[in-house]
């Protein structure tokens, strides 16, 4: 099985806050997937009512490894963590090249609970397979009970990928898709202003509202001049 490493370069993590801390407090509470982490106050920096927290603290508490290039002044965060999790809901489809499977930890999620959905694209051929595709190869979409549908964007620039027999790519549904759902569903035009207010007043900005949703995944690629698309979906409930 082949896992593709994701590297992210960042310089700071910014959290909006209208109420930074209680008077006389000696520590700052940060909730990562609703797990409370304590950070000493002296490690915080508050500028114009915005709270800057140490990037390493956040990253390492989320299972990432942080590196630093002092010459180029670059911070590198590398994360390939896939939590130990079992699916209770899945669907799949396949052709002669690949099997695309969509899996969910649960059928019903509580509001604010991390939605654990991931997908796998597994090579079914007995020889090396070369494909061209946009980025990312695997993309997600969601549709609510009102019929409002939002799809993850991908670049149109084609990249080449090679799959050996049995190779498998894994992709977790991105949380920014849920945040974009809020923006588009509410017809937000002043995005920056809305996000600043929303992020500073909402405990779970990426949480889906309560209701029923169809979550789908698609793999779209070319073999020589032939375009091929695989897609499958599951239904979940947020309560």
TrEMBL record:
Q: Where is the signal peptide?
A: 1-22
Does the record carry Iron as a key word? no
UniProt keyword annotations, A-Z = Signal
The protein's matches in InterPro entries, at most eight in alphabetical order, are given as: Cu_amine_oxidase-like_N, Mao_N_sf
Residues forming the Copper amine oxidase-like N-terminal domain are: 30-77
Q: What is this protein called?
A: Copper amine oxidase-like N-terminal domain-containing protein
Q: Tell me which species this is from.
A: Paenibacillus campinasensis
